Amino acid sequence: MEMRVTESAPGRVDAAPIGFGEALMEQLRWVWARLRFWWLVLGVLLAGSGVLLVNTLTENTWPRSGSMFAGVVLPLVLLVAVSWSLSVWRDDPPKDRDYFWLQPVGREAHTLARVLAGLVWMLGVMAVAAVALAIAILVAPDAGLADHALPPAGFWFSWLGAFVLSYLVGTFAAILSDRPAIWLVLGAILVLLLDGLAGARDWQWVDAVTNWFTSGDLSLGTALFAPGVIAFQAMADHAPAAMQMSPGDHQPVAALLIWLVIMTGAVVGAAFVSRPR
Amino acid sequence: MSETPWPLRVASATPAIETLGLRKRYGRSVVALDGIDLTVPEGSTYLLVGPNGAGKTTTLSILLDLTRRSEGEVRVLGHDPASDGAQVRARIGYVPERADFGYGWMKVRALLRHHAVYRPGWDADYAAELERALELESDRKFGKLSKGQARRVELLMALAHRPRLLLLDEPTDGLDPLMRERVLELLADHIRRFPTTTFISTHLIHEADRLADHVAVLDRGTIVVQAEREALMRSMRRWSVPGDARPPAELEPAIVSRTTDRTGPVWTVWGEEAEVRPRLERAGVTPVTAARPSLEQAAVAFLARGSRARLGEDE
Fold it and tell me: Which end of chain B, C or N, has fewer beta carbons within 10 A?
């Protein structure tokens, strides 16, 4: 039997799907409203970091605070970025995404609009944090930083880049899985476990694989952590010359760039793969 | 498919929904839909009835591309929902079976605003009118509403942009009798004011009885009858027969079901009265009465037939 097509409707102008721009604007509003609790948490975190930062600057304790930032604050804020991405999708896990998918907009575009909306707000918060940091460095008395010099561009890039990368990793899991946090934790444990075993048992091919995630020059771990470490250590060295990264230090930035491209592709791919079953 | 005296297809030059050989399998063994052919004429109010688990919600999900079909063809308002889903969804108002999607933190007013943004045809005046009629509490969080209250919010969300096609999955489920009555009146009024194709999936047949002009009965993923309501009503009779009556062999294929009520055996037979009565009398069966079944009785008769066939009672 041949299928017939009905295009006309009695007495009504036909509705059309909305575009990506309208969906993005609405998702920006929605994410803003949904993450109200997060704004409070981030406000407290930022205020706390600011106090800590000004205190360490005025007390001239950068070397200690550099390690603290690298070892404690940076992992913490990366965790915040992952949690942020999971929160953006908490209402719409794949098994219960019908309402989101029922909206009259291309599903891939709608998914990417949500991802972008979450990213825009997160970058907004990070921009505020960066401005606060810059002001603190510029105005703090006796900071021990020559001429109150601002950190190099690599610092700002790595600061924002590592955040974006964490957000993308979390988003990738949240788009595809009903339990993204569990998968992320299990994935991290598995990689670390394999990495440890590969080192102990001399499994070279396993080591080569895990190095892409842990400690290789271009690994995910390097991308997430090393740029921050370098920037903070550069600040800790107090000397203006050290504020400029040496050529060898650009490797982590390259890792960050590579992984940003990989994860952006992965998230876009997930938006296309994720669909009703 | 075996030949039956009753229709399995509806003819329409302008179907709003049409499926051909629609199949849905989950894994290798579970067949939710087994090659169904649906034709929902544009402007009709079409009732898809069947017991829980018959495949009604799966059918709706496929029409909305919330579930992918395994085989077959689907057209909704001229579009294939699997490849052109946004076009389909822009023209549809949908009330899902479950009202517990994850936006419970939103106040009803905010949820309606969010919903409206996606629908350029949203009629704010009509939405306000529906809000009053449905007695919505717009300042309450959606997640704090009772099932019935949430259902009313979803009805507003489905109706206020005056879509060409309404897909309603158990629309009166969870409503108290008074609100159920009001919602059915409101639906009837909506259909009268804004010509709409309405596809209602329900197992509460008597509630949607007054709205329907087309009916299909779905049983275990198979359409067992599909007809215009009037044709169905005109062509079926419930025959009260003597207790010792045996059905004539020539009439056997037309007997939809055999039950017993307080007066004795009742045969639900497909065929107009003037045609069936002489055949019964020729076989020595003198019926007491021939009554027109209600829509619910007709649907239940078809479902009972399927159930008996599965149990092997017909043999």
Answer: C
